[in-house]
Amino acid sequence: MSTRLINWFKFSSPATFYPLAGRIVTWSAVVAVVLLAIGLYMSFFVAPTDYKQGEGYRIIFVHVPASWMSMFIYVVMAAWSGIGLVFNTRLSSMMAQALAPTGALFAFLALWTGAFWGKPMWGTWWVWDARLTSELILLFLYIGFIALQGAIDDPRRADRAGAILALVGVVNIPIIYFSVKWWNTLHQGASVTITKGSSMGQVMLVTMLIMVFAFWAYAIAVSLARVRAIILEREKETTWVRELVGGAR
């Protein structure tokens, strides 16, 4: 058991993680493309029409997975930030930095698709609903994290400042999740829960899960590709990066 742990710990070094990340990126990108193609096809052509919302409900197959991913990625980003802050590990901070733009993309996608869904359902593009407002705050947290790190020249100081912001912002995640229970909101409750299962039809649920896994694969591929670029930038003065760049030429 101890030998296995040591083998895994070796990947905490940017030099050993870099090639591993490259292999994962390739496979994750392939999985993302395949699942996304299947998921979108099922979303538009296989899933039945909703008896209440008609065809307009189909946007949930993008909106809901994007919302889930925006929250999940922030928690992972905050976890990496906390590890980097406590143990002063370089790779942890790099992972947090790499995850932020992808999380911001999903938060924006959740708000954008939510607006398109809300217009025919509620009669307006936007309301200051608890769920929508807290999701908007999440987008601002992502943007703030990216801007804060970009504004500080020293990477170590930037990592510490970003980590503090990320950890403070975690309090917003349960607010987003439980907002429909804590307050009287226009936003509907969860259709899929761990305790109560799913209120969706089987085809709808399968389609939703395929899109979730497609977004997961996309997030893994893009974030790891980005962290490889960050590693090369931050470790450019090290011998292994010089040899890697020199060999690539």
TrEMBL record:
Domain Cytochrome c assembly protein: 22-187
Positions of transmembrane segments: 20-46, 66-87, 99-118, 130-152, 164-183, 203-225
Membrane topology: Multi-pass membrane protein
Keywords for the protein's UniProt record, in alphabetical order: Cell inner membrane, Cell membrane, Cytochrome c-type biogenesis, Membrane, Transmembrane, Transmembrane helix, Transport
A Pfam family annotated for this UniProt entry: Cytochrom_C_asm
GO terms for biological process, alphabetical: cytochrome complex assembly
GO molecular function: heme binding; heme transmembrane transporter activity
GO cellular component, one term: plasma membrane
The keyword Cell inner membrane is annotated on this UniProt entry: yes
Intracellular or extracellular location(s): Cell inner membrane; Membrane
Function as written in the Swiss-Prot or TrEMBL entry: Required for the export of heme to the periplasm for the biogenesis of c-type cytochromes.
PANTHER family per the UniProt record, alphabetical: CYTOCHROME B_B6 PROTEIN-RELATED (PTHR30071:SF1), HEME EXPORTER PROTEIN C (PTHR30071)
Similarity remark: Belongs to the CcmC/CycZ/HelC family.
Protein name: Heme exporter protein C
Organism: Sedimenticola thiotaurini
Gene: ccmC
